[in-house]
Design brief:
Blueprint (H helix, E strand, L loop, with lengths): L2 H12 L4 E4 L6 E4 L3 H19 L5 H16 L9 E5 L6 E4 L3 E5 H6 L3 H16 L4 H20 L3 H9 L11 H17 L5 H16 L6 H4 L4 H18 L9 H8 L3 E2 L7 E3 L2 E4 L4 E4 L5 E4 L4 E4 L5 E7 L5 H11 L2 E11 L2 E10 L1 H7 L4 E10 L2 E10 L3 H12 L3 E2 L3 H4 L4 E7 L4 E2 H7 L7 H7 L7 E2 L4 E6 L1
Parallel strand pairs: 3-5
Antiparallel strand pairs: 1-2, 4-5, 6-18, 7-8, 8-9, 9-17, 10-11, 11-12, 12-16, 13-14, 14-15, 15-16, 18-21, 19-20
Helix pairs in contact: 1-2, 1-6, 2-6, 3-5, 5-8, 5-9, 8-11, 9-11, 9-18
The structure holds zinc ion.
Pfam families: Peptidase_M48
Protein name: Peptidase M48
Cofactor: Zn(2+)
């Protein structure tokens, strides 16, 4: 299934020889791990995988907005020769990331959190900056590999602990880590590029504040955009100073912010998890479209994407994933998947899981793979379960040593798989952002209350609006509220 993509990426990552090239941004000679054509090839291979992993967010006007602004900015960048692509992916995580070769992705989660076009443009410039300044292209591609490879990657190179940690923190995929210097340089380029297309780059600094507040709120950890910036206050001041200087330099006297136009554009955007992609409640995963449910082990973290649900304990000592299995029959599915993952069956039996036909298989990575890893041998338990047209695979992986301890945990979760029939779960709708006008002057808190937003969510909504609850809003101000 995914094997070819992964091994292709593997080849492009590990067969690279470093060479000396001129950096398009600094003009200096850099040691580059990739040639431009290698960067482009990597981007081309990664793009369909990223799109498959997240899905595109279906909103033509938002997609054409990012495309239009992205292309406009790419033209004035240091590498206007590349073929750029700009996409909004269907993920609630607040993130934006770039892949070598000219690929830039924003999540619907970050789109929901910007409060004007200028904030969006600043972050867009920052991400384009990572591409134009050729930041740690090798590190990026490894990260894609680590995240995209998932099960296969785990078996080939089982960094179980590290992987489990990321899963349990519930972070988005593609946790790219750049050096602090790279992030500073990208901030500078974000200021330069967004100023060049007429935006007020100081707004980017305000968006970093939103990210910081979001992180402090504790709901969601913020991936790459904040990861290498230990001092957000410093970053805030620096971006403001850079923005002022750049506006003077470019003689931009009336920089554009575009608050109302941006808010009107995102009116109705899905906010938070979209139940149609599956959702978790009280440690049970529900998929209303595919009509199944199963329990996630107690205290485990999880991560859901269109292709799989991954779960793991906080100490990273095991991992479990639900995927669709290939093949027309249970036997065929089991055989093909074990083969794809290079697993040898140790034991297998036919079982019934809440009335659904299934096969349970214990399997080990093939001996030569185990040796190559020079690590503790692994063991897997997989339930292949037939439900309607589909065959689902729930695979648990841990070390052979831990296997007996985890057997009950794995099989308990796997045996909880059943048909979802609760109409309340089947008909669950996502929350959406609704843009409303404040009819008369009041505080943000007052405005939220008049729109029946529960007090318990006021802080969350203040962050979403990039405001304080005590802020005075003149009549006619547009704000975000959330509605089903
Ligand atoms: Zn960055």
């Amino acid at each position: 299934m995914r094997k070819n993509i992964i091994s292709g990426l593997l080849a492009s990552v590990f067969l690279l020889s470093s060479s000396c090239q001129t950096n398009p941004v600094t003009g200096k000679k850099d040691v580059m791990f990739m040639s431009e054509s290698q960067e482009i090839a990597l981007g081309k291979e990664a793009d369909p995988q990223i799109v498959a992993e997240f899905g595109l967010y279906e909103d033509p006007k938002l997609q054409s907005f990012i495309k239009e602004k992205g292309q406009q900015m790419a033209k004035v960048s240091h590498r206007s020769n590349l073929n750029y692509e700009f996409k909004i992916v269907d993920s609630p995580v607040i993130n934006a990331f770039a892949v070598p070769g000219g690929y830039v992705y924003f999540t619907r989660g970050i789109m929901a959190h910007f409060n004007n076009e200028a904030q969006f443009a600043g972050v867009l410039g920052h991400e384009i900056g990572h591409i134009t300044a050729r930041h740690s292209a090798q590190q990026q591609s490894k990260s894609i590999l680590a995240q995209g490879g998932l099960l296969l990657g785990m078996i080939l190179s089982p960094t179980v602990a590290q992987y489990g940690q990321e899963v349990s923190q519930g972070l988005g995929l593609l946790m790219l880590k750049y050096s602090r210097d790279a992030e500073r340089e990208s901030d500078k380029l974000g200021v330069e590029y967004s100023t060049k297309i007429g935006y007020d780059a100081s707004e980017m600094a305000d968006f970093f504040t939103t990210l910081q507040r979001k992180q402090e709120e504790g709901g969601q950890a913020i991936p790459s955009l904040l990861s290498s910036h230990p001092d957000p206050g410093d970053r805030y001041n620096t971006v403001h100073q850079l923005a002022d200087a750049e506006q003077k330099k470019q003689n931009l006297t009336d920089p554009k912010v575009g608050r109302n136009s941006y808010l009107k554009m995102i009116d109705g955007i899905v906010y938070g998890e979209d139940p149609k992609q599956g959702f978790v409640e009280n440690q049970v995963f529900y998929h209303p479209v595919l009509k199944f449910q199963f329990s996630i082990p107690t205290n485990w973290g999880y991560q859901n994407s269109p292709q799989q649900v991954q779960m793991g304990p906080k100490d990273g000592s095991a991992v479990m994933a639900l995927t669709l299995a290939p093949g027309a029959s249970l036997q065929e599915a089991a055989q093909q998947q074990l083969q794809n993952y290079g697993l040898q069956p140790v034991e297998s039996k036919q079982v019934t899981v809440n009335g659904l036909p299934a096969i349970a298989v214990v399997a080990d990575p093939q001996p030569q793979q185990q040796q190559q890893q020079q690590q503790q041998p692994l063991r897997t338990l997989t339930y292949f379960i037939q439900h309607g047209e589909n065959i689902y695979s729930l695979m648990g992986i841990t070390t052979a040593q831990n296997f007996n301890n985890y057997f009950q945990v794995f099989s308990g979760s796997m045996q909880s798989f059943k048909v979802l029939s609760d109409p309340e779960k089947l008909n669950r709708k996502p929350e959406r952002i609704s843009i409303v006008t404040v009819p008369k002057a009041t505080t943000l808190a007052g405005a939220l209350r008049s729109h029946n937003m529960p007090d318990a969510r006021h802080n969350e909504l203040a962050v979403l609006n990039g405001m304080q609850l005590s802020d005075q809003l003149p009549a006619g101000t547009l704000i975000k509220v959330v509605k089903k």
